[in-house]
Amino acid sequence: MQSSLHSEEGLGVASLSVLYAALILSSMFLPPILIKKLGCKWTIAGSMCCYIAFSLGNFYASWYTLIPTSVILGLGGAPLWSAKCTYLTIAGSSYAQKAGKNAKDIINQYFGVFFLIFQSSGIWGNLISSLIFSQGSKKVEISEESLACCGAYDCMTGTTNSTGSAQPSNSLIYTLLGIYTASGVLAVLLIVIFLDQIKSDQAETEKETLKTPTFWSTFLATFQHLKDKRQCLLIPLTMYSGFEQGFLSGDYTKTYVSCALGIHYVGYVMICFSAVNSLCSLLFGKISQFTGRKFLFALATVTNTTCIIALLLWKPQPKQLAVFFVFPALWGLSDAIWQTQTNGLYGILFEKHKEAAFANYRLWESLGFVIAFGYSTKLQVYIKLYILLSVLVLSMVTYGAVEYIEAKSSPGTPTTTKKENVAPLAQETHM
User: Fold this and answer.
1) pTM of the full predicted structure?
2) What share of the chain has pLDDT > 90, as a percent?
3) What is the DSSP string of 370-421?
């Protein structure tokens, strides 16, 4: 909602750009430092406080409040997600060892459960905002002339959002921000009180208690990880995650939903996306052990490709209300695969260097967001769709190369694979 609530002089879009730029910088050096110093639990709790700061900055939105708090949020984002991914990978491996199950299957299930809960935030957040803003919204009839500028071949007038409801009152905005801020505070308290501490590389940590990593060694850890050919090949896939999320939340909602239906429909459309995303995250996390990740990645590719082609051809009309919800539903299905399977893939391939690997994940995904936001106001939607399709094709080619390398390096048997996944992590779970 930043671009809609704070559209004056592009403040909302500028804050988002600064946020993801700070997230890139954060990904380069902060995750290894904080996770080593604080452990996963306290890294998660401290990083979540950065999100609360951003909510507070929105109460008095200006260049002097939003930009600094965007930087704070960006700096906290990478440690939060790296610590979360590390925590889930270690916990999943620990449980797999105790239960005598395959580590990669349990890790995929853990990520599926996490993303079920995480993506459901889009349901509750959009439902809250829709219910609050609907109290002051007035529907406006959209003219045929305005509809002509909707869709892939938009007119780039910058006024597509104005066809919807009027700007909500300050009291409604403060009510919404109050709910969001209170939710953030409650979340931090739940983490501090109930989440168990967990440490990675416990045996090595005890040996190196006197060796504190230097700033530059941790700063370079993310880039040193690029020596791994598999990490380099996964960059397009990771960036595509940022591209596709940025397109749906920014371009689809603006040039299709807001333009043809009005801004009051955006929340409900995104609820559809989040609901499907949540359910599919849980589903794919569970069935991946039966289908394998290659089948799921192929399913996501076909689904996204079909949506992109359809969006290029479709001219949105208010009478086609159901169609506006079909696209976010299919997008949610494919995004559930991109999120759960890519995170799980990182955890399985790089179990010995999880912090650096997941820092790379956040860095390259954030770069995808920055690029998507960067050309958001410069290019027509059809060009963005062609870019999205091109990145998707490249992602699948490089991902296929990763699978080929893995198949070539582990010739083997399920027993061999299981040992490779579990053994290196077994030491990390002994306290």
Assistant:
1) 0.73
2) 36
3) HHHHHTTTTS-HHHHHHHHHHHHHHHHHHHHHHHHHHHHH----HHHHHHHH
